[in-house]
Write a structure and sequence with these properties.
alpha+beta, binds acetoacetyl-coenzyme A
Length: about 375
């Protein structure tokens, strides 16, 4: 087993690293404070092929593998998790979902524009009363022959206002339970579709998170993804890959905080020497480095499972569970190593600590990952 990255993967890593330093780092603190979406940066990410990394070039994608995607996600997330969540949702939920399960017409009409970054997508599953309990969909999509009538509210939707294309999960036939759920493509501007208020968040404050309201929105049946009743499985299959992207985001947040703490510990002096010479600090760095490396192996393993067409429900859930825990613990320690400066925005680590928390919540909380993991290991 060779753990070294290929030349191509190293090039993608360098390109993402350069982009993060040159384009994301300037004003990242201001964007966080002002809750300002990184619109220009996302546009450039699209031009460089980061918005449809795994999509076939015939649909304007970059035709790369999942390992390339997680490598890029790690580098972008080291600097700006608000930008990287936009990349993650667009790539692994929206583009992947459409490319794998959409019709040719849907791919031509929507995927080509999403993969090039011309427009951004959103994935709309969560509701006020259906977060972890995702089968309890209250949003309805009533079958009216050649179209559906969509009614309901979605919550905490990433890219809620910036997106142009929304994949919306809704209940068509309640008696059929999760087998009566459909996934519909909804366009911004469809009559009856309103964007709700923006959430004022603890972290990833540059990303725009909104509730969405659907009032008798007429959605053509040609916008349904997959067969009638496939919506819940569509959501589960898509989220299984999405979780690898968020695991990579968590890894990046942890690695970003660690790199800052390492550098600071070699510059800051206390008791007559650099603080890295104190065992209390050196041992913290040793723990952080070890945990990050372990998280990286889990993330890469999940990505390679996906690339090799192996089941990645288990490896993706383990990667997300562990990497998000490492992100939380590492960022707390990075703040601690920075001491008083860690509490100050200019040093970035307090933002990374706030950003880390969401990785234990979205695309399935840590508790949901443990359900997925335990069911998987107990099923035989
Ligand atoms: N692949 C394919 N099918 C799957 C699947 C998977 N990974 N997981 C479940 N299914 C299928 C099951 O096989 C079952 O189908 P059958 O009855 O035909 O066998 C069906 O889906 C229902 O599954 P369960 O009985 O296991 O359903 P459950 O009610 O026990 O829930 C759950 C399972 C894992 C807890 C699920 O509800 C879940 O993942 N919840 C969390 C939802 C989530 O991740 N939300 C995040 C919101 S999106 C987001 O955050 C995006 C963003 O903006 C950043």
């Amino acid at each position: 087993m060779d753990f070294s990255l290929s030349e191509e993967h190293l090039m993608i890593q360098q390109a993402a690293r350069d982009f993060a330093q040159q384009e994301l780092l300037p004003e990242v603190i201001e964007r966080d404070e002002e809750q300002r979406f990184p619109i220009e940066q996302v546009k450039k990410l699209g031009e460089l092929g980061f918005m449809g990394m795994m999509v076939d070039p015939k649909y304007n994608g970059s035709g790369m593998d999942t390992l390339s995607y997680v490598i890029a996600m790690e580098e972008l997330s080291k600097i700006d998790a608000s930008a990287s969540v936009v990349v993650s949702v667009n790539n692994s939920l929206v583009c992947y979902g459409l490319e794998t399960y959409g019709t040719e017409e849907q791919k031509q009409k929507y995927l080509t524009r999403l993969a090039s970054g011309e427009v951004i997508g959103a994935f709309c599953l969560s509701e006020p009363e259906a977060g972890s309990d995702a089968t309890s969909q209250k949003t309805t999509a009533i079958d009216k022959g050649d179209h559906y009538i969509l009614n309901g509210t979605k919550n905490w939707i990433t890219n809620g206002n910036t997106a142009e294309v929304y994949l919306v999960i809704a209940q068509t036939d309640r008696e059929k339970g999760h087998k009566g759920i459909n996934a519909l493509i909804v366009e911004k501007g469809m009559e009856g579709f309103e964007i709700g208020p923006k959430e004022n968040k603890l972290g990833i404050r540059g990303s725009d998170t909104h509730s969405l309201i659907f009032n008798d929105v007429k959605v053509p049946k040609t916008n349904r993804i997959g067969a009638d009743g496939f919506g819940f499985k569509f959501a589960m299959k898509t989220l299984a890959g999405g979780r690898i992207g968020i695991a990579a985001q968590a890894l990046g947040i942890a690695a970003g905080a660690y790199e800052l703490a390492l550098k600071y510990s070699k510059e800051r002096k206390a008791f007559g020497t650099e603080i890295s010479n104190h065992q209390a600090i050196a041992f913290k760095l040793a723990d952080m480095h070890t945990q990050i490396e372990a998280a990286r192996h889990l993330v890469y393993k999940a990505a390679v499972d996906k690339d090799n067409d192996h089941n990645y429900d288990l490896s993706g859930a383990m990667a997300k569970l562990y990497a998000s825990q490492v992100a939380m613990e590492t960022t707390v320690e990075a703040v601690q190593i920075h001491g008083g400066n860690g509490f100050v925005k200019d040093y970035h680590v307090e933002r990374l600590m706030r950003d880390a928390k969401i990785t234990q919540i979205y695309e399935g909380t840590s508790e949901i990952q443990k359900i997925v993991i335990s069911r998987s290991i107990l099923k035989d």
